[in-house]
Amino acid sequence: xxxxxxxxxxxxxxxxxxxxxxxxxxxxxxxxxxxxxxxxxxxxxxxxxxxxxxxxxxxxxxxxxxxxxxxxxxxxxxxxxxxxxxxxxxxxxxxxxxxxxxxxxxxxxxxxxxxxxxxxxxxxxxxxxxxxxxxxxxxxxxxxxxxxxxxxxxxxxxxxxxxxxxxxxxxxxxxxxxxxxxxxxxxxxxxxxxxxxxxxxxxxxxxxxxxxxxxxxxxxxxxxxxxxxxxxxxxxxxxxxxxxxxxxxxxxxxxxxxxxxxxxxxxxxxxxxxxxxxxxxxxxxxxxxxxxxxxxxxxxxxxxxxxxxxxxxxx
Length: 315
Prior knowledge:
- This protein is 51% helix and 4% strand.
- By secondary structure, the chain is mainly alpha-helical.
- A three-stranded antiparallel sheet has the order 1-2-3, with no helix packed on it.
- Helix 4 (67-79) runs antiparallel to helix 5.
- The longest helix has 21 residues, at 18-38.
- The mean pLDDT is 89.
């Protein structure tokens, strides 16, 4: 089916990451399962929605899909699957990309119905983050008697100072660390350099001094952060340990996740480090600067000071 060809194109030509390709695959799978039902295609009534096959769909079926059908799908995603505006916006992006491929690359459709497909309005979000004092409290609250103290401390320091994504942290390789630089593969398989400050270097050295990789395989030895099973630490483990340490520090907000620590790093750099928005974009590995611009709205104290500095404020 053309979906497979499209996914191969994303991987081999566009260089999209595994996570991105997986997300596109999921979106298209849900889309075509819905379309089979919506367009009256014969479907076994005993099958659950997730079990509906889509490998029997041909070019004629795809050509028959109209813009109104796509909006019906977005309505289904909202009402039946409780998709947020963000989730539906991603589905719109998936459909646009897929149909653009069919029209401009595969040349299997003459008209692209997704051209006029509009994305749901996304309300402006302000990032959730820890303050400077809260970040210090978090680091100081770790139990130094815990066998994983040095590893967990290093993980938190890297999050709070480098603004890494969870997937980026899990895949850090020791061989990619040279002095105060760390090379990582970020979103979209794009390589970027992270600069390690003194806090990161100190935490790294302390962790490496106690890190035991004697039972790890030759391949796994190169991964910086290892689990209890001597395999590269995974995203779920990182999420659990971050949640545990944040809770132990006295912060009960369930929204504090590894990604919020990335927000914290970006916010602290912007508020306290005099980092311009372009530099912050490069540090975080954002493709679009509009993604980075959410951090320009967080410094309310700065805005308050700016207003109070008006020479007319004392009249």
